[in-house]
From TrEMBL, chain A:
Lineage: Bacteria, Pseudomonadati, Pseudomonadota, Alphaproteobacteria, Rhodobacterales
Keyword flag Transmembrane helix: yes
Protein name per its UniProtKB record: NitT/TauT family transport system permease protein
Species of the source: Celeribacter baekdonensis
Domain ABC transmembrane type-1: 87-277
Matching SUPFAM superfamilies: MetI-like
TrEMBL record, chain B:
Organism the protein comes from: Celeribacter baekdonensis
Keywords assigned: Iron, Metal-binding, Pyridoxal phosphate, Signal, Thiamine biosynthesis, Transferase
GO MF, one example: metal ion binding
Biological-process GO terms, alphabetical: thiamine biosynthetic process
Name of the protein in question: Thiamine pyrimidine synthase
Pathway field: Cofactor biosynthesis; thiamine diphosphate biosynthesis
Free-text function comment from the UniProt entry: Responsible for the formation of the pyrimidine heterocycle in the thiamine biosynthesis pathway. Catalyzes the formation of hydroxymethylpyrimidine phosphate (HMP-P) from histidine and pyridoxal phosphate (PLP). The protein uses PLP and the active site histidine to form HMP-P, generating an inactive enzyme. The enzyme can only undergo a single turnover, which suggests it is a suicide enzyme.
A Pfam family: NMT1
Signal peptide: 1-20
Chain ranges of the SsuA/THI5-like domain: 34-252
From TrEMBL, chain C:
Bilayer-crossing regions: 12-33, 71-90, 102-121, 127-149, 179-203, 223-242
Membrane topology: Multi-pass membrane protein
Keywords, alphabetical: Cell membrane, Membrane, Transmembrane, Transmembrane helix, Transport
InterPro entries: MetI-like (IPR000515), MetI-like_sf (IPR035906)
Keyword ATP-binding attached: no
All copies of domain ABC transmembrane type-1, residue ranges: 75-250
Coiled-coil boundaries: none
GO CC terms in record: plasma membrane
Keyword Membrane attached: yes
Organism: Celeribacter baekdonensis
Localisation per UniProt entry: Cell membrane
Protein name, UniProt field: NitT/TauT family transport system permease protein
Length: 289, 327, 258
């Protein structure tokens, strides 16, 4: 915990810089308005106004804090204005995409490890898939899932989240499944083990530490995917959609609050999955990678 | 096997019989707001139910092309603007106008006076904000009429694809931006710029107005008499909804707010929007005025070097549905 | 497992698989009469690419060269400078690393509408989004890389009486290179995503994100797919270039031999 002091210092420094920037950036509007009204601006007017504009270029930290407080604690969680409600929707997409991502990642890794042809064919495409900007595909994914008749936006959103989250799982699982060395494989052969035994009793168990280690990256990727999906598919609920709606209706405070709510949720998710990983590793006898 | 068949037949009979109402899914062009109040009022007030319809309204958004939802089978009928509907028709999406509740266009170009613009003759060299995603056509045909290039060449205008808000004007990134009389214009006012500091050009006044919110279906579906009957009832109930909404803007706004899933709309803004929308509805009983249609087509065909549509559309509208609805 | 892959196999299998998908796609679309407004056949996409070369080129320059690449070097350079500075001060490093790690996992792309508001609708705002997006992963990777030398190597440098700068240039810098390239590989694909998304929130009338959303509204899906193909090729090429440079520069590292 010796890191607490440095972290607090850095965060405080960031907040001070932020206040300075808010003052500087918001003052243009104050001057413009005064010019339109034909009045003079004193320094204290300027200071007061830049800290409490309703459409600031950069809201002051306390404005964001109070907006967040209003939209989480003060609102019922069933209200559509509640960030908790919106966060739950993004969370649902994230988890669905996360699960899809794990299943696809593990399945592809298995094929790649077990079959030479599978490896030759799929591995290059898996790498290429990650270099394609998924947002370019978002509208197409929505239209196609609509055409197939999924009805809601949940499925296309989860597909986009899964698209980003399967890759870390795939890479780690390929590493994990190929981690048993020749000696271990030879040993099993002397036992007369079949291919399936080698897989279930040696490869799969030895891949587990790699698997758990990939989950933290995968859940973060899935979360980013969920938000990007909500931004680019015209979703009407979820934190990404709040950012869009804030921009659309000219209410920057909604946008900033959603951004910070997303940051908090991402932090929580990564922390939870990280703890899960630690617990799992502990149960497996603390085997390090 | 026989028993199974009979029960299947019984089920079929039930679904088309008096027990279950006909399902209709309506795809809106934009998010839930008073622009579509008539449909929400008809739903809330039971006008659809009275016509034995079970209506689902799907809101749209910045990245939803209603035509694609229609093509994908996600909706039976959509609200769209005629320019984008006709452009889609030329691109192989056979949509047909069946009703036109909006008589006049609410589209405007709103400029800051301090940019020095006093009339369209001041546009050259200025940056103008335009919506895309199918909404750029009226603007392009207006510029075509003025003879101004939009590709950034000398003597033309610089076009900016504006986002979903009025920021480009507030941040002075553009001299003018596109606004609707019932929506974005008031966002500019709400942001603290007084009407005196603004100068607006209505597309109606410039003689380049095109038909806005109309109801469209796929051409194939019109060969089915049951569907036509369903649409006639839908249009009739929708127009009843519009009449009610125009007469009771406060209540209509409240209904819209109830259906708003974003929770970002406000009562003041929606009441104002409904009042403005009511002005655009005046003079329409729901049926398409063929003269308006022809004016829209002519305007789109004459879009300068890059016309919106290249040939006169055929069969792009039908009066059959509204005729049946009026009976 | 015993047979090693020949060069031909490494190329032909994935290529064959890609072709198979394209053929199935073409046949499927034709067989089921899928509307081109929903899913165009690959042949139509190819035709669109061939017939709209100048447009695609203009969009590519706007989005990739002006938006993504500018943002990429700005973000990377900023991360590099900051990393070298805070590496000197243990206090700063302890405070910044957890904060940077946290930011690296955030959906920073959500800043796109804000950046458009701040920096205008042209490429500057796109480069800004990209710079912020790549900054944190780069910072975390470089800092990780600078810490990647073991005590023995450091002690060796100390016995040579090497200064901080000398240790940085001769030992820790080169040791950090594999990490830097790892970060760059992540950053290149982030850069494209950032540049494209930012165009959804306001742009001039060119750019890949602009074209995708506009042509989607016009139902010209062949053009949308043409842009997707261009973006995919660009992403893959950037990744390939980074890998190629990595191979040349870090030829000594175990991961490049073997």
């Amino acid at each position: 915990m010796k890191n607490i002091l440095p972290i607090v210092t850095i965060v405080l420094a960031l907040i001070v810089i932020w206040y300075g920037a808010a003052f500087k950036m918001n003052s243009t509007w104050t001057y413009d308005q005064a010019a339109r009204a034909g009045t003079e601006v004193t320094f204290s007017d300027l200071l007061r106004d830049t800290m409490q504009q309703s459409r600031p270029l950069l809201p002051a930290p306390h404005q964001i804090a109070s907006e967040l407080w209003n939209t989480t604690v003060e609102k019922k969680i069933t209200s559509k204005r509640s960030m908790v409600y919106q966060g739950m929707i993004t969370l649902k997409t994230t988890l669905l995409g996360f699960v899809f991502g794990i299943v696809i990642g593990v399945a592809l890794a298995t094929v790649i490890v077990l079959s030479r042809v599978g490896r030759l064919t799929l591995m290059p495409w898996a790498i290429i898939s990650q270099t394609i900007p998924i947002v370019a595909l978002a509208p197409i994914i929505v239209v196609l899932s609509n055409a197939v008749g999924t009805g809601t936006l949940m499925v296309p959103k989860a597909i986009i989240a899964a698209y980003l989250s399967f890759y870390p799982v795939l890479v780690s699982m390929v590493k994990g499944l190929t981690s048993p060395d020749q000696m271990q494989l030879d040993l099993l052969r002397t036992y007369g083990a079949r291919q399936s035994d080698v897989f279930w009793k040696l490869r799969l168990p030895s891949s587990m530490p790699y698997f758990f280690a990939s989950l933290k990256v995968a859940v973060a990727a899935s979360f980013v995917g969920a938000v990007v999906a909500e931004l680019s598919t015209s979703a009407i609920s979820g934190l990404g959609a709040r950012m869009l709606i804030g921009s659309q209706f000219g209410e920057p405070m909604i946008m900033w609050a959603a951004l910070f709510a997303a940051a908090i949720l991402a932090g929580l998710l990564i922390f939870l999955v990280g703890s899960f990983e630690k617990a799992a590793r502990h149960l497996m006898g603390g085997r390090a990678l | 096997m026989k028993k199974l068949l009979t029960s299947a037949a019984a089920l079929a009979a039930m679904s088309s019989g008096a027990f279950a109402a006909d399902d209709v899914t309506l795809q809106l062009k934009w998010v839930t707001q008073a622009q579509f109040a008539g449909y929400y009022v008809a739903l809330e007030k039971g006008f659809y139910e009275a016509e034995d319809l079970n209506v689902t309204i799907k809101p749209g958004g910045p990245d939803v092309a209603p035509v694609q939802v229609l093509l994908g089978g996600g909706a039976d009928v959509m609200v769209d603007w005629m320019p984008s509907a006709l452009a889609a028709r030329e691109n192989g999406a056979p949509v047909v106008n069946i009703a036109q509740p909006y008589k006049s266009s609410g589209m405007m170009l709103t400029c800051l006076k301090e940019s020095g613009i006093t009339g369209p003759e001041d546009f050259p060299g200025k940056t103008l904000g335009v919506w895309f995603y199918g909404n750029e056509y009226p603007f392009l045909s207006w510029m075509g009429k003025l003879g101004l290039a939009t590709d950034g060449s000398e003597g033309g205008v610089t076009v900016l694809k504006q986002g979903f808000n009025v920021d480009p004007l507030l941040q002075k990134q553009a001299a003018c931006i596109s606004t609707m009389t019932y929506n974005e214009y008031w966002q500019v006012i709400d942001a603290g710029i007084s009407a005196d500091d603004l100068i607006t050009f209505k597309y109606e006044d410039q003689g380049v107005a095109t038909l806005e919110d109309g109801l469209y279906v796929l051409e194939d579906s019109l060969s089915d008499d049951a569907f036509k009957d369903k649409m006639a009832r839908f249009v009739k109930a929708s127009m009843a909804g519009w009449t009610y909404a125009a007469a009771n803007p406060e209540e209509a706004a409240e209904i819209v707010l109830d259906y708003d899933e974003t929770g970002a709309q406000t009562m003041t803004h929606q009441v104002r929007m409904m009042t403005e929308v009511a002005k655009l509805l005046e003079g329409s009983d729901g049926s398409l005025d063929v003269a308006d249609y022809e004016r829209t087509v002519a305007s789109l065909l004459s879009g300068g070097s890059d016309p919106v549509i290249t040939k006169e559309p055929v069969g792009a509208y039908t009066l059959e549905i509204t005729d049946a609805a009026m009976k | 497992m015993t047979r090693s892959d020949t060069r031909a196999e490494q190329v032909l299998w994935p290529l064959g698989f890609g072709l198979l998908v394209l053929v199935l796609w073409e046949v499927g679309v034709r067989l089921f009469g899928v509307s081109p407004a929903i899913l165009p056949p690959p042949s139509a996409i190819l035709a669109a690419i061939l017939s709209s070369g100048p447009t695609l080129w203009e969009d590519w320059v706007q989005t990739v060269v002006k938006g993504a690449l500018n943002g990429l070097w700005m973000g990377t350079l900023a991360a590099l400078i900051l990393a070298v500075i805070i590496d000197r001060f243990v206090f700063l490093k302890r405070g910044l690393l957890p904060v940077a790690n946290f930011f690296a996992a955030l959906p920073i792309v959500g800043l796109a509408p804000i950046m458009v508001m701040w920096f205008g609708f042209d490429w500057q705002s796109k480069a800004a989004v990209v710079a912020v997006m790549v900054f944190f992963p780069m910072l975390v990777n470089i800092l990780g890389g600078l810490a990647a030398v073991d005590m023995m190597q450091r002690d060796l440098m100390r016995t040579y009486a090497a200064s901080h700068t000398q240790t940085l240039l001769k030992l820790r810098g080169p040791a950090a290179l594999p990490f830097l390239f790892n970060g760059l590989k992540i950053a290149t694909s982030l850069a494209l995503i950032g540049a494209i998304v930012a165009e959804y929130f306001g742009s001039p009338i060119r750019g890949m994100g602009f074209r995708i959303s506009t042509e989607m509204g016009r139902l010209a899906t062949d053009m949308v797919w043409a842009e997707i193909v261009v973006s995919a090729v660009t992403g893959t090429a950037l990744y390939g270039i980074v890998s190629a440079i990595e191979k040349r520069v870090t030829f000594w590292h175990p991961s490049q031999r073997g």
